[in-house]
Task: inverse folding
């Protein structure tokens, strides 16, 4: 056996030995890997129906190919721009409030020096993340109910008429964004709090020696130190700009608020799982694929911009 072959064999033997020594770690990794393959990668092959006139009776292999017909039909649909407008507006409002509020909250929590109070506030803010969307919307309905709802009781006590908030198109976006802020701000803040714990304490000591106030330390030390984390989270948020929480929307849905509540995902849901006639799986898959491609392009663009103006990027 040549020296090169011996080295290759020795290298493979060493690799297998390291893998065997770390077998417990690989076993821990296995469930997540299986989940990713079964629920993330394998379903991608089903996207082929977006280019077919798919029939559940004929299956993927025998369904008629129609190319980009469904994509063209969606873009030329008179309802297309209303769906895009509603989706983008919801996403922009979500980005304006859901993204910065956890950063602000994390900055204030980081300034709390009393550890028990700090842990209590973090736990309390994190708790809504574990409440299901169905329960959160039910709580919202109860609070805003025109008969016996706390908010309307207060309005009546102040001399105002009751308002059926859940049936008013103008209130839908504010209520949706408010629910997202309530549910996610504590969870998202953990990422920034974790980033703040890695900041070198000597930076704060140097700032104290220079006579910096708390606000100055926040803007001159803390924020610049977690800039990379903020940029990465912003890029990921940009990727979700055409994605909304469908569960919340469907739970808050009613015909009186379709004008502002109907978004691309709810439209896909109605098309793909229509209760009237046969569901149009191909059309729904085409709309969903188009949305994903646009989101991917936005992520690439945001990543390129961030790499141009800073050292922070995803890839």
Result:
């Amino acid at each position: 056996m040549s020296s090169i072959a011996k080295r290759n064999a020795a290298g493979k033997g060493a690799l297998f030995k390291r893998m065997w020594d770390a077998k417990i770690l690989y076993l821990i990794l296995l469930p997540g890997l299986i989940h990713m393959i079964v629920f993330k990668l394998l379903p991608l092959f089903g996207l082929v129906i977006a280019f077919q006139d798919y029939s559940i009776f004929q299956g993927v292999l025998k369904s008629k190919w129609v190319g980009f017909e469904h994509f063209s039909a969606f873009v030329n649909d008179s309802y297309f721009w209303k769906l895009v407008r509603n989706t983008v507006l919801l996403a922009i409002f979500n980005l304006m409030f859901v993204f910065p509020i956890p950063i602000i909250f994390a900055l204030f929590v980081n300034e709390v020096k009393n550890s028990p109070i700090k842990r209590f506030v973090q736990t309390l803010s994190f708790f809504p993340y574990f409440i299901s969307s169905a329960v959160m919307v039910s709580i919202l309905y109860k609070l805003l109910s025109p008969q016996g709802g706390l908010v309307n009781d207060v309005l009546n006590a102040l001399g105002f008429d009751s308002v059926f908030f859940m049936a008013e198109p103008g209130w839908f976006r504010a209520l949706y964004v408010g629910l997202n802020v309530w549910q996610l701000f504590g969870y998202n803040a953990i990422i920034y709090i974790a980033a703040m714990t890695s900041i070198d304490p000597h930076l704060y000591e140097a700032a104290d020696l220079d006579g910096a106030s708390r606000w100055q330390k926040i803007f001159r030390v803390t924020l610049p130190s977690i800039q990379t984390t903020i940029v990465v989270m912003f890029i990921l948020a940009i990727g979700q700009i055409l994605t909304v929480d469908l569960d919340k929307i469907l739970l808050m849905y009613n015909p009186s608020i379709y004008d502002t509540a109907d978004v691309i995902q709810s439209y896909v849901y109605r098309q793909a799982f229509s209760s009237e006639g046969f569901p149009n799986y191909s059309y729904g898959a085409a709309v969903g694929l188009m949305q994903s491609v646009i989101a991917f392009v936005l992520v690439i663009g945001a990543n390129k911009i961030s790499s141009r103006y800073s050292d922070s990027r995803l890839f």
In short: The longest helix spans residues 169-197. The radius of gyration is 26 Å. The CA atoms of residues 51 and 68 lie 6 Å apart.
